[in-house]
Amino acid sequence: MSLEENIRKVRENIAAAAREVGRDPGEITLVAATKVQSDDTVRAAIAAGVTVCGENRVQEMTAHLDADAYAGAKLHFIGHLQTNKVNKVVGRVDLIESVGSEHLLEAIDKQAAKLGLVQDVLLEVNVGGEESKSGVAPEAVWALARKALELPNVRLRGLMAIPPVAGEEGNRGFFRKMRQLFVDIKRKMGDNEADMDCLSMGMSGDYMDAVREGATLVRVGTALFGARPPMRPKAE
Questions:
Q1: How far apart are CA 190 and CA 136, in angstroms?
Q2: CATH of the domain at 13
Q3: Do the beta carbons of residue 160 and residue 141 sit within 8 Å?
């Protein structure tokens, strides 16, 4: 199918999954994961109705920004962010979805202060406790959320997770755990409760289950663009 048809199909699937559980499809935002896509493909996705792009690598994001490829869409950074790359991301994206440590949170706040802005972030949760993945442990999320609330140039908007490879039941158990964690932390936010409105989870293989379990953002790449082209050497 064409890119336009893929986008339409994914949106239809999101809407169907939402209605199954009595949710308004309008509550869920499709984030097009544009990793290793060309400028022209990114532009085509936006022309076909994509409103949010998600980029994994700082180098690719910078190149797309220089080419104005994201024009007409919001931009999220969804990959692992090193502290020495914070100055290339803060203030250039609408949302950093992958903040999994106090050190990174403080670096973002410091850079945002230099620019005189407030950077929206999500806390990345290592919901499956996998050594190979970044993110904060579920039991440590509230401590990191409290830290975010103390920083004047950071606004905590919610949580993000990449669950383990799905087992027989799929990832619904992990998605349910994330939803409960999101609700629990939101209740503790006090005056900042209204800021916390994003639960980012679900990718091409499981985004419908993520929607059924409460996701407000789903990060979809392969289901939109097809199999990814070969990775270019990483030179960040």
A1: 22
A2: 3.20.20.10
A3: no
| Token pair listed for 144 | 């990191």
d(CA 79, CA 131): 17
pLDDT in tens, 41-99: 999 999 999 999 999 999 999 999 999 999 999 999 999 999 999 999 999 999 999 99
Count of domains observed in the chain? 1
Amino acid at 23: R
pLDDT digits (tens, 9 = 90+) for 91-130: 999 999 999 999 999 999 999 999 999 999 999 999 987 8
Residue type, 204: S
Is residue 172 included in any domain, yes or no?
yes
Phi-psi region of 68 (alpha: psi -120 to 50; beta: other; left: phi over 0): left
**What is the pTM assigned to this prediction?**
0.94
- Helix 39-47 vs helix 58-66: angle between axes, to the nearest 10 degrees? 70
Residue type, 229: P
- Hey, what are 11's tokens? 């949106």
Max CA separation in the chain (angstroms)? 48
d(CA 91, CA 108): 10
Of the candidates 201, 207, 212, the residue with the CA atom closest to the CA atom of residue 163: 201
The contacts of residue 209 (CB under 8 Å, 6+ apart) are: 17, 170, 171, 172, 175, 202
